[in-house]
Amino acid sequence: MPGPASAQTAASWLEPALLAVTASALTAGGVLWLLGDTDAADLCWALGTASAVVPAVGWVLTSLRRGHAGVDLIAVLALGGTLAVGEYLAGALIGLMLATGRALEATAQRRASRDLRALLAHAPRTARRRTGTEVRPVPLAEVAVGDLLVVGAGEVVPVDGQVVGPAAVLDESVLTGESAPVERRSGQTVRSGVVNAGGAFELRATATEQDSTYAGIVRLARQAGAEAAPVVRLADRYAAWFLPLSVAVAGLAWLFSGSAVRAVAVLVVATPCPLLLAAPVAIVSGLSRASRLGVVVRDGGALERLGRARTLLLDKTGTLTGGRPRVLDVTAGPGWKPAEVLRLAATVDQYSPHVLAHAIVDAARERELEPSVATDVSEEAGRGAHGVVEGRRVTVGRLEPGTPVPDWARAAENRALLDGAAVAWLTVDGLPVGAVLLRDPLRHDAPRTLRRLRTAGMERIVMLTGDRPEPARELAAVLGLDGVRAELTPADKVAEVRAERRRAVTVMVGDGVNDAPALAAADVGVAMGARGSTASSEAADIVLTTDRVDRLADATSIAVRARRIAVQSALGGMLLSLAAMGAAAMGLLPPTVGALLQEAIDVAVILNALRALRVDQGARPALEPAAEALIHRFAAEHEDLQDVLQAVRDAAALLSAPGQEAQALELVREVNRLLIERLLPHEYAEEHQLYPALGPTLGGPEATATMSRAHAEIERLSGRVATHVALAEAQGALKSEQLEDLRACLYGLHTVLRLHFTQEEENYFSLAP
């Protein structure tokens, strides 16, 4: 008995072979008819018809086993009828239509297969077991509860267990999606599948291979994929009522006229070619349009379901956020400047592979801070990196136990807690001198994407994340989500997906291995494939190959439009077929003429279906090249101006420090210089270059009016700061009566600038690819 592989191989050549045979038979018969050999022509057309009957019967039987009679049943009745009454040309035409529709669908469905190869490839095959002083590799199946294992740097934890001895530093993003490594101390539980991001550590196994977390994820993904309901084609849904109607009209025509030819003529014009061709053409056109934007859709069924979806579930890290920590703020202790703190931290961290170290080095480079040369650099897992820089011992990471924490450092700790940020402390010769706050930021294109998705028909948008509730709720509030579920395991995500599927067609978007089971369980799984895990891409129906979440909105708009056009084409074609059925039942259309008329109907509905290839101008505003270049220019300037925003905030904070009036005045002078030389020229250029260039795209100058008002407020506050500096210069110092207003100006300016930058990045800069 042939297995699944042989069946799949047979299916891969059946549709194109049938298309070739039916097209050849129809063409050969036409040539012979033109040469006057009608008998040979009829033979060719009869062979073409017969070649279509056999596979069509197989497709009908498959549909019946699944519990529904599909569109192919009408085609089988029409094919059999044409053979019975000798209308071979009509049968050959129907066979060609049937083969063309099936070939279009098969081409879309063969784009990729959903499997778990990547999940299985990530899973370790062996473990290193310690027996006394000897460490030797053993097959993972031989690991028993209680065994002492050694996990080397960069290795995947083979089974669930507890840390023995020194703490372990782990990259748990494969399970939780969170990019920042975590520390597990002696006695704490470690789950299989996570990666050792620090030095080697020992693990006491608490579960076997089959009972461990990672094996459970693989089983979840398999189970979720197996439970997915078979896709019912759009054509089959309409055939559910069109089929009995067609058979009833044909039967009545035969009953009242006594002519079997009339019944066959009814079946010929009833052959649902608009269903066989128009719907697949529209869906495949949508697939083609999506692929041009970097959206790979597994098959037409996935695109069709995306067009009907009403609930969207989103992972947080890597989907709504960038998936990589970035420097949020730099705090400097007394006598130090933030730029120097960041430069020294980058000097040591440039030798570290830690994900937070990469973020610090990147931030220093963006601000054009050149790291020095560090010597005697070492890294302690879970503690940080150490090195000698310019003759001083510099450490970046956690504070050593017992280190005195000054007041400025407590303020930095509080801000990190409020912002949900991680803290990398900079100590010089054992004393803390600065802190770098890091956080995974919201994607600039996320708010616009969610607005577009709601416009496309998404009625409910919920975040599912393994992260802590506090940052998840903050992000959900900013984006206006309908719900948030935090601290979820992969099994919890699958349960949430199943619950939402009971209410509406549901889309799940994620990027990590921990998301793979949920992607498989959803009606439509969407993977962020540009930087996401291969496992999530393999489990998904749709893969976004570019690192832009707004491609999801593009794909949804394409899916909605393609499905709408498919429905229009199918219904319009069926209405024309119903009119032709009436004419055939009255004897006005013989089978061959009916088949030719059906061809004309097909051409009309196919041309309409091909509209799905065209760009929907309303989906994404079209930018002129000059406007796009300006967006990239000002986006880069936003990065360069981060040190100006930091200086404004630092000056406001220093005004509150007692006895720091002279230092505060010096910093306010520097802030005034930065505002005049760097910030205000940037805002002026945006107002007079960027906004006019965006006007045609956004619908006129009124679209940027509120942002222009922000420019005016920034200029007003900057002028107020300049006035305070002039007063202080004239008086020789900052007077007490100036402090309250100047502090309010600086804090207000910092707030307005942050909000203004964020609005521009989300509303304008996200328009450019």
From TrEMBL:
Keywords: ATP-binding, Cell membrane, Membrane, Metal-binding, Nucleotide-binding, Transmembrane, Transmembrane helix. InterPro entries: ATPase_P-typ_cyto_dom_N, ATPase_P-typ_P_site, ATPase_P-typ_TM_dom_sf, ATPase_P-typ_transduc_dom_A_sf, ATPase_P-type_domA, Cation_Transport_ATPase_IB, HAD-like_sf, HAD_sf. Residues 123-221 form the P-type ATPase A domain. It is found in: Cell membrane. It is a multi-pass membrane protein. Residues 630-767 form the Hemerythrin-like domain. It comes from the Bacteria. It holds the Pfam family E1-E2_ATPase. SUPFAM superfamilies: Calcium ATPase, transduction domain A, Calcium ATPase, transmembrane domain M, HAD-like. The chain crosses the membrane at residues 17-36, 43-61, 73-101, 238-257, 263-284, 570-589. Its main location: membrane. PANTHER family: CADMIUM/ZINC-TRANSPORTING ATPASE HMA2-RELATED (PTHR48085), CADMIUM_ZINC-TRANSPORTING ATPASE HMA4-RELATED (PTHR48085:SF5). Belongs to the cation transport ATPase (P-type) (TC 3.A.3) family. Type IB subfamily. This is Heavy metal translocating P-type ATPase.
